[in-house]
Amino acid sequence: MRYLGSTYIAVAILVLTFVLGLYVDVRSEDMHVRHLGISTRLERIVRLEQELTSLLSGAVLEEKLLRVSRYDSVDEHLTATVGTVAELSREMELSGDISVLLDLQRGLRTTEARSLRHMRAGNWGRARAVLFEDDYVLAKKIYEITTESVISALSDELAQRARRLEQMRQLAYGLRLAALGLLLWVGWRFSRRLRSEVAEQARLQQKIVTTNEQLEASVRERT
Q1: What is the pLDDT of residues 6-36, one digit of tens each?
Q2: Which residues contact 142 (CB under 8 A, 6 or more apart)?
Q3: For burial by CB atoms within 10 Å, which of 67, 102, 119, 165 has the most?
Q4: Please, are residues 158 and 31 in contact by the beta-carbon 8 Å criterion?
């Protein structure tokens, strides 16, 4: 029974480590997909913001409204991309930074909408003043810094998660080795006990044979 209990413990540890290893593999794959999705979209956000800035700057400098004809579609694409990043990072620590990024983005779009209204009204001087005023330039700079900060925070958080998952994987390997060692020990102890019992049975059998031979010899002598 003692060996049987040890066997049950070893099997339970093996099952536990198998489940833990499966969990780590699933989480690692999910983290990889999420990392790739967020990183790609953050790079796209930077690119789209640069495109919006280029469209607006080109329009006010050349005083051509046609230059901002793509503004709405680019802005829509940008908004959708930021929303996807927010969704992907919802359970991560940087979700707060994403919320700040969204607030800054809404502020920039509000200022740019004022400039666009002046452009469409033909008031190019006022449109330029809105885009080059200190508040907008400062907000733009803060937005760029925040975006870089979010990208850096993302890399740090994913690296920490990767380290935790690797620690869990190493723990699973260690427990699995311990379980295998326990099974080997149980097998060795059981084999040793079995050999001992077989040897004892052989000794008793030999003793019985010897006793029977002595008894037969005694009977023959009396006869």
Answers
A1: 667 767 777 777 777 777 777 777 777 777 7
A2: 104
A3: 119
A4: yes
